[in-house]
Amino acid sequence: MWHLLLVLPICSIFGQNSLPDEFIRCRQKDAHLNDCLVAAVPDALRKMRKGIPELSVPPLEPLQVSSMEIESGAGPVVITQSYKNIRLHGLTDSILTTYKADLKHYRLRTESLTPKMEFIADYVMKGRILVLPIHGKGVANITMVNLVVKHELIGEPVERDGHTYMRMRDYRVKFVPKRVLLHFSNLFNGDKRLGDQMNLFLNENSDLVFNELKESYEKSLSSVFQDVTNKIFNSVPMNKIFPEDE
């Protein structure tokens, strides 16, 4: 979900001068730009697992998000969820399968495969699944196995100080996991028997549960990624993020 997003801080950090020798370089007018990016993004992610403290780059393993609010309306799954202290594990193991950069029209699209993505956070939850009530407050672990992530970024040019910047007016993300594992600690005020039964039920019906909530997760994370991406693009001109041919 976030793989295209994560390579951009790398470019913004070094883009005012040049990328370090150990980073793969992809030039704007390269006829094989997309192929270059498919190799460059995972390589950069691996090199930034622990972050770069001297440049204020946070660790990417895990990637931390402060909070998310998830609501699901009518349907078999109606749950209000609040997450804080979110940690996303597994991003740096992602492999890009496609990358399409249409810089002329300010559009970026990519698809990736993450072998295992773990979403771990403090949660508060209340609602129902089918006819069963559910509530709790504790630690959530949502693990997505063989997760395909699709990103589409739609931007527009902004002229400032003689330079062209790109502002993202829309960021869309889609999750397609092969399997989802769910665990919520301290359900039903710590009633272990009810909590174990509910976690078992959740995993036996994980496709139903996740599919009903997926759109809310996608919208929430898309908003986070859009805000962060716009901060990056607002600071760095287009020709510094995607170098032009010399």
Q: What does it look like?
A:
The chain has helices at 3-14, 33-47, 192-204, 206-235, 238-241; strands at residues 63-71, 77-89, 95-102, 107-129, 132-160, 163-184. It is α+β, with helices and mostly antiparallel strands and 246 residues long. It has one domain: Bactericidal permeability-increasing protein, domain 1. Strands 1, 2, 3, 4, 5 and 6 form a 6-stranded antiparallel beta sheet that branches. Helix 1 (3-14) crosses helix 2 and helix 1 (3-14) packs parallel to helix 4. Mean pLDDT is 83; it is low at 1-20.
In short:
With 246 residues, the chain is α+β, with helices and mostly antiparallel strands. It has helices at residues 3-14, 33-47, 192-204, 206-235, 238-241; strands at residues 63-71, 77-89, 95-102, 107-129, 132-160, 163-184.
Topology:
Blueprint: H1 3-14, H2 33-47, E1 63-71, E2 77-89, E3 95-102, E4 107-129, E5 132-160, E6 163-184, H3 192-204, H4 206-235, H5 238-241
Antiparallel strand pairs: 1-2, 2-4, 3-4, 4-5, 5-6
Helix pairs in contact: 1-2, 1-4
